[in-house]
Design a protein that fits this description.
This protein is mainly α. Helix content is 77%, strand content 0%.
């Protein structure tokens, strides 16, 4: 009798991580969808941001890095459009991943597809905000030197939030397995089990 009364509780507990992954994925999806929507509907605001960062026109005067500056407005605008397209694609993928998590939780199966889609979308944002904004913008174009056009704090917050969502997404639970982690990150099964263990 005790075992039977414990089963629903155990089942709910075993679904806690997939539920957390769904909620975090959905929150990140909402955030990046709003960012992309804002950039599309208020194109000029962040267009100026990207232009100033790439032109390096507000970095320290006389610094030796100015040879890296991109002064062509056509190239600057192309970079901005590429950023918006990347944000939009990540938002669509994360919205789909959130829906897949919801279906998997309801049906008790399909966690592998949800995890794969969520991992892909979250990694897209890690590349954009970590590699693009912090790495390329912050260091290559010396955005850290600018008082007015410095997005490093915002990018760091996003990378932290996305990183937490990615960790939760890749954590194994009773509803998922090492094989699911393997599928999400592209490791052979044996290597994925070493990562999980």
């Amino acid at each position: 009798m005790t075992a039977q009364t414990d089963r629903p509780t155990d089942r709910r507990a075993s679904r806690a991580l997939p539920l957390a992954a769904m909620l975090l994925t959905g929150t990140v999806a909402l955030y990046i969808a709003l960012v992309a929507f804002g950039n599309i509907t208020d194109f000029g605001t962040n267009q100026q941001f990207v232009r100033h960062v790439l032109a390096m026109d507000t970095t320290f005067k006389g610094n030796g890095l100015m040879w890296r500056a991109v002064e062509s407005t056509a190239v600057q605008d192309a970079a901005y459009v590429a950023i918006i397209a990347w944000e939009t694609a990540a938002a669509v993928l994360l919205i789909a991943a959130t829906a897949l998590w919801a279906v998997a939780l309801r049906q008790g199966q399909g966690f592998r597809r949800a995890r794969r889609a969520g991992t892909a979308g979250l990694l897209m944002l890690m590349l954009l905000f970590g590699g693009g904004f912090i790495g390329v913008g912050g260091e290559w174009f010396a955005m850290w030197q600018s008082e007015n056009w410095n997005g490093l704090d915002a990018a760091t917050r996003v990378v932290t939030f996305v990183g937490i969502a990615l960790i939760v997404t890749l954590m194994p639970s009773a509803e998922t397995s090492a094989d699911d982690v393997k599928t999400a990150v592209g490791l052979p099964v044996d290597d994925a089990k070493k990562v999980v263990d």
